[in-house]
Design a protein that fits this description.
This protein is an alpha+beta fold. Helix content is 51%, strand content 19%. It has three domains: 140 residues, Beta-Lactamase, CATH 3.30.450; 195 residues, Heat Shock Protein 90; 56 residues, Orthogonal Bundle (Arc Repressor Mutant, subunit A), CATH 1.10.10. InterPro entries: HATPase_C_sf, Sig_transdc_resp-reg_C-effctor, Tscrpt_reg_LuxR_C, WH-like_DNA-bd_sf.
């Protein structure tokens, strides 16, 4: 149902009902279609800061909607008061566009809807009031789903939020590595201007390639072999010393044991941070980086031949300590003046978790959707129709679900799902 000017109350309520009864992923498209008669627009975007599952969404013409980012909406979040629709021009998707921005305080942290309009014509107060009321209703609906989530929805939100945090951390480390490599080139005294420029361009190009590879990498990976995790670390360390006199020695683990993704990522981040600190010392000619796995822990070691003056105070309350504390690990520093420093980060392979065990934690977002249908007694054909995938894909997901949950049948998986409620 599409709303037009002077909307009767009954029509507005019916339209609102049609919007909020949609699946979460279809609410914004339906809301956009519903409001297009009142406010003709090319695209719609929302920033629901309380939503752990998917706080930013956009919908509309592909050439525009695909370019809109959460960063475009942040200035409007800060400047548009709740309950007071704002009309004006804003930079959206790289260009200036007329917009209608509507903020709601129906949740503690607020939510914003932006309609990127097709024409810059003032919209009457009654029509903007309808848009405001509709957005307040949708925001309240989102908030209720977040605070009263059923197990399946809650598990999906947790999985999505955790995965998003992991990806952001990975990309942050990639940026930090690239920038540190560029600084190493610019600070180096062994290259003239032309050589330094060529080296910096080479590093930047390689960093862009790596960034795109990270973006396209399968985000559902929960574990990776220790050797593969160390190889990724080695690839990120080499640019840091490529144009310095320091010789980097690498000691890969002699174990093929798989590491949990959070352990592998934390170990890489910690080693990079320690290496960057070691490189800031004077008279360092060699740095050895190695991983060693025992039955219960991963020991990541960075050993240099510098002045031997590093200490626990050198790192202080840094991200190194925070990462280790989160995983139940520790940092040991053995410094011998005149001989060098050995920094060892020890990470338990079974990190302690004080929160109640979540049996669904290992499942990806799509697997959680399939499990939700299994728990309702749906067969493969019905699940395939509901999720718009093939039956063979459903069978693949079901097999993965049974393996990850450690159960032998669909019935046991369903019982485990219901036990979370």
């Amino acid at each position: 149902m599409e709303l037009t000017g002077s909307v009767p109350a009954a029509s507005a309520l019916a339209a609102a009902h049609e919007v909020i009864r949609q699946p979460l992923g279809q609410i914004l498209p339906r809301l956009s279609a519903t409001l297009d008669g009142l406010v003709p627009h090319l695209a719609a975007a929302e920033l629901s800061t309380h939503c752990a599952h998917s706080p930013f969404k956009s919908y509309g013409e592909g050439s525009l909607a695909g370019r809109i980012t959460a960063a475009d909406l942040h200035p409007l979040v800060a400047s548009v008061p709740a309950g007071q629709p704002w009309q004006g021009t804003a930079r959206i998707g790289g260009d200036e566009h007329p917009v209608l921005a509507v903020a709601s305080d129906a949740t503690p942290r607020g939510a914003l809807l932006v309609l990127v309009r097709s024409e810059n014509v003032a919209i009457g107060g009654p029509d903007t009031a309808v848009v405001q009321a509709m957005w307040d209703l949708v925001t309240s609906h989102f908030d209720r789903l977040a605070t009263e989530a059923v197990p399946g929805t809650l598990a999906q939100s947790r999985a999505a939020a955790g995965e998003r945090a992991r990806v952001i951390a990975e990309l942050t480390e990639t940026h930090a590595t690239a920038l540190s490599g560029l600084l190493g080139v610019l600070r180096g005294r062994g290259l003239d201007d032309a050589a330094a420029r060529a080296a910096a361009v080479d590093l930047a190009v390689n960093a862009l390639v790596e960034l795109r590879a990270e973006t396209e990498r399968d985000q559902a990976v929960a574990e990776e072999p220790a050797g593969q995790a160390f190889a990724r670390l080695a690839d990120s360390l080499r640019p840091l010393v490529r144009y310095s006199p320091v010789r980097l020695e690498l000691g890969a683990p002699d174990s093929a044991r798989p590491l949990a993704a959070d352990v592998a990522h934390a170990a890489r981040a910690i080693v990079r941070a320690v290496l960057l600190t070691a490189l800031e010392q004077d008279a360092v000619g060699r740095i050895h980086v190695g991983w060693h796995l025992t039955n219960g822990e991963l020991r990541a070691t960075v050993r240099d031949d510098g002045p031997g003056e590093l200490s626990t105070c050198t790192f202080g309350p840094s991200r190194v300590g925070e990462r280790l504390e989160a995983l139940g690990g520790r940092l040991d520093i053995d410094a011998v003046p005149g001989w060098g420093t050995t920094v060892t980060a020890t990470i338990p392979l079974g990190a302690p978790d004080t929160s109640p065990a979540d049996p669904l934690r290992s499942l990806g977002a799509r697997e959680l959707e399939v499990l939700t249908h299994l728990a309702r007694g749906h067969r493969n054909r019905v699940i395939a129709q509901e999720l718009h995938i093939s039956e063979s894909t459903v069978k693949f997901h079901v097999a993965n679900i049974l393996t990850k949950l450690g159960v032998a049948s669909r019935g046991e998986a369903s019982a485990l799902f219901h036990s979370v409620a």
